TrEMBL record:
<keyword id="KW-0813">Transport</keyword>
<dbReference type="GO" id="GO:0015979">
    <property type="term" value="P:photosynthesis"/>
</dbReference>
<keyword id="KW-1133">Transmembrane helix</keyword>
<keyword id="KW-0602">Photosynthesis</keyword>
<keyword id="KW-0793">Thylakoid</keyword>
<keyword id="KW-0812">Transmembrane</keyword>
<keyword id="KW-0249">Electron transport</keyword>
<dbReference type="GO" id="GO:0031676">
    <property type="term" value="C:plasma membrane-derived thylakoid membrane"/>
</dbReference>
<dbReference type="GO" id="GO:0009512">
    <property type="term" value="C:cytochrome b6f complex"/>
</dbReference>
<protein>
    <recommendedName>
        <fullName>Cytochrome b6-f complex subunit 7</fullName>
    </recommendedName>
</protein>
<comment type="function">
    <text>Component of the cytochrome b6-f complex, which mediates electron transfer between photosystem II (PSII) and photosystem I (PSI), cyclic electron flow around PSI, and state transitions.</text>
</comment>
<feature type="transmembrane region" description="Helical">
    <location>
        <begin position="20"/>
        <end position="39"/>
    </location>
</feature>
<dbReference type="GO" id="GO:0009055">
    <property type="term" value="F:electron transfer activity"/>
</dbReference>
<keyword id="KW-0472">Membrane</keyword>
<comment type="similarity">
    <text>Belongs to the PetM family.</text>
</comment>
<dbReference type="Pfam" id="PF08041">
    <property type="entry name" value="PetM"/>
</dbReference>
<dbReference type="InterPro" id="IPR012595">
    <property type="entry name" value="PetM_cyt_b6/f_cplx_su7"/>
</dbReference>
Length: 47
């Protein structure tokens, strides 16, 4: 059987309400950082 805490996280509505915004914020921050790195690399190669 899976770890109880993991099953509970995906089963309860409260954790979904909490984990949703956290995951979205994490993805946004990761996307901004990744885009900044790519722009830096492309800018360095272009110039």
């Amino acid at each position: 059987m899976y770890v109880p805490s993991i099953g509970r996280i995906f089963m309860t509505a409260e954790s979904m309400m909490f984990n949703g915004p956290v995951l979205i914020a994490g993805l946004v921050l990761f996307g901004l950082a990744w885009g900044f790195v790519i722009l830096k690399i492309q800018g360095g190669e272009a110039e």
